[in-house]
Fold this sequence. Notes:
The structure holds 2 protein chains of 2 kinds. By secondary structure, chain A is mostly helical.
Amino acid sequence: MADQTNAAAPETAAPDMAGLTKRQLKRMKRFDNPWNNPKLIWGITLLMGIIALGIFGRIFWDTDLVFTGAVMPSQAPPGFENLRGQAGLASSPLGTDVAGRDLLALLIVGAPNSLYVGMLASLIGMSLGIFLGFTAGYTGGRIDDVIRVGSDVMITIPPLLILVVVQASFGDITLTMMAILIAAFVWQSPTRLIRAQVLSMRESGYVQMARLSGASNRHIMFREMLPNLVPYLFGSFIANVTTSIVTAVGLEVLGLGPQRVPTLGRVIYDAIDSAALTRDMWWWWGFPTVLLMVMFIGLLLINLGLDEVSNPRLRRL
Amino acid sequence: MSVLDIKNIHIDFPTSKGVVHAVTDVTLSVEKGRRIGFIGESGSGKTTTALAAMRMLANPGFVASGEVHLNSLEGDTNVLHLDEEGMRRVRLRKISYIPQGAMNSLNPVMRIESQIWDAVVAHEGAMEQSALLERSNTALDGVGLDPKVVGRLYPHELSGGMKQRVCIAIGTCLTPDLIIADEPTSALDVITQRHVMQTLREMQEKIGAGLILIGHDMGLMAQSVDDIAVLKKGVLVEFGPVRRIIEGAEHPYTRELISSVPLVGGESFLHAQAAPPKGEKLDVPLLELDGVGKQYGAVTALHPMSFALDGEEPKIISIVGQSGSGKSTMGSLMLGFNDPTTGSVNFKGDDINKMNAAERLEFRKQVQAVFQDPYACFNPFYRVNHALKFPFENFGMQGDVDAAMHEACEAVGLDPSLVLGRYPHQLSGGQRQRLIVARALMLSPKLLIADEPVSMVDASLRATILANIHDLKDKHGISIIYITHDLATAYHVSDYVMVLYHGHVVEAGPPKDVIGDPQHAYTRLLIDSIPWPDLDRDWGDAGDARAALDALAQIGGTPETVYRGDIPGFTLRQG
């Protein structure tokens, strides 16, 4: 008969740290804490950079320069010339647009606004998705049918088409209103994802154990199931932020969305509207585009990093 | 002449916790026409060693040093020196592989015969349709499947045993030098297992190939192979002819593996106990099934049956049957996870499906369960304490929860300081299953439903865990319903046995009668199909296995129940 020591023994031979290169050992150390993931850290750094731009910009730069006629119009950044041969001024480090607005001030106000719309829309969409997904997966039956068919139908509707119509009829709207409108189109995929996960988890051993322990439905959903969904939820949230920002910028570039609040999309719309491309005012559309790229690359890296955190098989030595 | 020589092979897996030496310095040869069994527990490196010969190691494993010689290769015989294309030619043609889960190994969108043609064309080039058909017919004929019927079917239309035989047909259709069979029957029940194993042996003898059979069941090894290689933690601890290993094992680990297989009529692995403490005396039965039946759509999982279990004298009632016999359905009906289609399940006189929330909590407290899969039973998000602590607090039990946890762990032979406060993935399957038993003990229910509690635990630990469960009855007065497919353990553990077949009770009574001297044709067949780790007890050949399956098909319909005597405090009837 097997004794106690045998039961406590590891199933395989013990790992051996000898014979590894220094670099491998260094990489291995990283696996001790999965959150110490370079992709994740870089992604968060990039996003923090955008937020820092918004915070420190407001402290060290004058945000009143976003208003028309605040500075000399159509100025290139210092060291460059505009089409009229005027050299850029140090007082407008990123140049100005045709209406005399300072581009740096526009970015300081606009970039966090774009991020805010994306985050808020995704947050609302995720909350809806978690609620509906859990309800559908756990209760099943008729309620499940309604939610499933509803989200399937919503997936097939192109969001931009609806949003263009809605926003065109609304006219000027606030950033929050815009986020809520976009949220109406980002709850479907989290709903489906969570429903599928809940369906498989409902039959799992630990949920059976919890039922056996007399756990209430609420306990099973929120204490047993939800914690295991956290990596999925994070990943889905970040992916939704990306979608929401793309949708928001898309609408703004079409001239829809908030009219009086500077956002990155709005700056690009103005640039296109004033023929910045043909007038060679590259700084006008270039800088907001770079900021959007930084934002998307940051979000992508966070998503990849979270994937590696939740799925150890993706980690390579 | 040897087919394959493995020389001083070391296999390493670089992981995030350091390099794991999965296989250390293994040397052995496979002779032509000889069967070698690789036996060991999960993680012992038995599959890894065999797969190294096919260069199919799971990522990120690699052969750190050593040589693998396939002697039928021309020139350099070391397969580790072959390029990818050369290796592709070797696989299946020289070394074939019969996987564990046949259900996942066949292409679900291709007909069976096309899958055999695929293998032939990949190694012998394109050929006439008629020639291909002839090849697939020969291959299917060899494993006892009708090529005209089975060849045109898709995998989902076949049973598990048939799929595994198709895998054997594919594995032997190119007459390889070596067949590697990785636990080919672990997903099958005993009757089908015997047929598949005999088919594999027959085919292997016909083509004269070497065979490496990977497994953990000493009984199956004894009945199927010529030589046994025992692996433990990547080291070859013992290698020799099957008779010497079984009758005179030198290494203590081998002896432990052999003694861990319980035998019907053999020595019991349980310690004799003083009279168990009595449960409370009730006017109504502790658990009563009244005409309970269950149908899933048109399928009847359980035909109406009734029994009454009296809680005064704790007893272990075994429910034995193959997969699909309705035994697990019975378990979930008794736990109230499923509503019966007909009849009612009564606990202390109350219908468990008509209870309100408070009564239901009380019922849950008194009826606990141990499930089959110890890996799934713990929420990976929490430390293992959660699974023990939560029910204790939820049921409003009195006392110090930490002290109770420590006491329960010690009672099942676990060191609390080693297991408590850990995450489930840090514990072995055996430790986890004992923790679940400890959980049941801590809650001290009146009734425990144990649904295949040891079928996913390594063989050497099965006896220990069953002894733990048996102690629940003997020391703590808990009545137990033990659901299993393993007749030998049911023989030792239980006070009463029911044999289930297609939702019917075919034979019931005390285990010494039902299992020791079976009367019903089905029970006899089950017992004859068990592979015993006893070389003098013949398992029969492929013909016997086939005849047995035919006999099984004749039982069908609504078989009569054979009652083999009663025990006090338990009554059973059909209907």
